[in-house]
Amino acid sequence: MRDCVLTLSCPDRVGIVRAVAGFLADRECNITDSQQFSDPDTGRFFMRVRFGVAHPEATLEALQVGFAPIGAAYGMQWQMYDAATRGRVLIMVSKLSH
Question: How confident is the model over 13-30, as a mean pLDDT?
Answer without folding.
Answer: 97
